[in-house]
Specification:
This protein is an alpha/beta fold. It is about 20% helix and about 20% strand.
């Protein structure tokens, strides 16, 4: 096993892969300094090409509701303090890639800190590293030549299985995944991104269950689409407008429930027809920065959930 780039290379069945426990901890970052201050992706500009303006009061209300929705999914929530000068720290999924202990020979959870593509976001990584270390996670930075790597923005663990879906595009390069696959002896499915509006894998692919995903195929290279089709028996296509304008695929699935960005009625109906319980979460203010439900948390497996102090409320 290694890095899979083409459907014809697949030599495994997902059901035969080792099992992983469901995450039980969600790290969130307080939105106290959230704002739209620079155009890092197309979502941050309005139709006139000007920066969108965030309503920080409304953003706080949305974040509080998201936290409550995640807690209702029986996840233990740990909140990191906001970091001055880091308005995008609230999208904390981008700061690191957790490696569950159950995926490794010695059983100890690891995390690979990100190498953020934009200099303005690089200050987000160290606060997450400190938090992970206090939770007992062994932090192991990349040592190779990879210039760009953005954690679980581009690295999605398959639900319940030892398999990582690896996005390659403007925020994460091939060299990062090559190093991670070799270091941890992991099977990685490499998916190339082709649309600037879908700059992270989590903007166009949501893994819902062991046999199901929500996706927006046009955001992926042909070879990537073939991989998803080969490995995903239940593929639910998001409505194209809702995927692009409402970030419908930036959803979070926990235990059969899907936390879906609000305002995506067509996508919601498609999910419900497939038997998923859907809870809409309003993230309109955060979507002005190009992020929504999935990228506003970092999930950890239960083995990393040791008691911690000083993380905030």
């Amino acid at each position: 096993m290694g890095l899979y780039r083409r459907a014809r290379e697949i030599d495994f069945r997902i059901a035969a892969l080792p099992r992983l426990p469901a995450p039980q901890v969600a790290i969130l970052a307080d939105p106290g300094h959230f704002d739209v201050v620079d155009a890092l992706n197309p979502h941050m500009l309005d139709e006139r090409g000007e920066l969108k303006r965030a309503d920080r009061t409304k953003a706080r209300e949305e974040w509080d509701a998201l936290r409550a929705a995640i807690e209702d999914c029986d996840l233990r929530v740990i909140v990191l303090d906001a970091v001055a000068g880091q308005p995008d720290f609230v999208f904390c999924a981008n700061t690191a890639l957790p490696i569950p202990g159950a995926a490794l020979h010695d059983g100890r959870p690891r995390a690979v800190p990100s190498r953020m593509s934009h200099p303005s976001r690089r200050g987000e990584v160290e606060p997450m590293v400190r938090a992970l270390e206090r939770l007992g996670v062994l932090v192991e930075p990349l040592s190779g030549p990879a210039e760009r790597f953005e954690g679980t923005g581009d690295g999605l663990w398959h639900p319940g299985r030892r398999l990582l879906w690896a996005g390659v595009g403007p925020r994460t390069c091939d060299e990062a995944w090559e190093e991670i696959a070799a270091r941890y002896e992991l099977p990685l499915v490499r998916l190339g991104l082709v649309d600037p509006a879908f700059y992270h894998l989590d903007t166009c692919l949501a893994l819902l269950a062991e046999d199901a995903c929500l996706w927006h195929p046009p955001a992926l290279e042909p070879a990537a689409r073939e991989l998803v089709e080969a490995l995903g028996p239940r593929r639910i296509e998001a409505d194209p407008r809702e995927a692009r304008e409402g970030l419908a695929c930036n959803a979070l699935a926990v235990g059969g429930r899907v936390l879906l960005p609000a305002g995506c009625p067509v996508t919601r109906a498609r999910l419900e027809r497939e038997g998923f319980e859907v809870r809409e979460v309003d993230t309109a203010e955060f979507q002005k920065s190009g992020g929504s439900v999935f990228c506003m948390k970092l999930l950890l497996d239960v083995e990393a959930a040791s008691p911690a102090q000083g993380f905030g409320s």
